[in-house]
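Complex 321.
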Amino acid sequence: MTASALRRVRVAEIERVAEEVKRFRLVDATGGALPAFSAGSHVIVTMHGADGHLWKNPYSLISAPDDGSGYEISVLRTATSRGGSMFMHDHVHPGTELQISEPVNLFPIARQGRKHILIAGGIGITPFLAMMQELAARDADFELHYKVRGLARGAFCERLLDEYGSRVHIYSSDLGQKLPLERILSEQPLGSHMYVCGPAAMINWALQLGRSVGWPPENLHSERFTAPPTGHAFTIKLARSGGEIAVGPQQSILEALEQHGIDAPFLCRGGACGQCETRVIASDGALQHNDHYLTDEEKTSGEKIMLCVSRAAGGCLTLDL
Ligand code: FES
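Predicted structure with FE2/S2 (inorganic) cluster bound:
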């Protein structure tokens, strides 16, 4: 995917679904139908701030995968983020036009799975909303285990309990309720798949626990939406096309390129898919690798960098671009 493959959409409806969480319904700006997607897909939403600031944030599609009349996303307002979620909450209203990418699925349902165990933490519930609709439509066996800080902060709790009843288990840390994941995983039939989405620490814990109780790695699935970490400003030199671009403290390399009208490939923008891997030709500052894609050896070699989340500690970075 590159920045050029964008679709204009209009915000048709906004609903507050929990403390600091809003649901947005997006319809095609020209009145057409939107393509069907597979459950687990996300889109990249492009936002243009009044001061020329550009944000491109990935959001899971939460509506019914076969509903072409509109897409729905859900956004947690994060005051400590770089501004995209605050822009969605504070400056986007019914009628606002946005641009979105085509849906991309990096978190698909394993069709051959005998049973599906969905583990969500906080806003990590979002990909599961579409997945549960698809699993229920296929009459597949599944359970949702959803960890929230408090019932007021857990988006869609009531709706999920209404729609899926005993398949939904909610754990509120305010009430001291713990997610008994080891027991849950130990009770599942062979051929089950686990899917986890939420804070990084929760994902790491669930994957590690899955491996430790003997689940095959290919049956453990996760999705991370990592915002690009901030850092020091630095400069990138483009070895093939020439030119130098400054990367600001709040910007990723990918965002700096896009701000200068340079299309670079991406899919997840979260350091997971590998699409933006780029060869490093020279660097006079240390590389800060923030992705989950390169191996430790590749990171140590300093020969590659993921443009969406990784950066230099300062100085100049020469890239094969
Ligand atoms: S866009 Fe997926 S790793 Fe950078």
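The first helix runs from residue 84 to 91.
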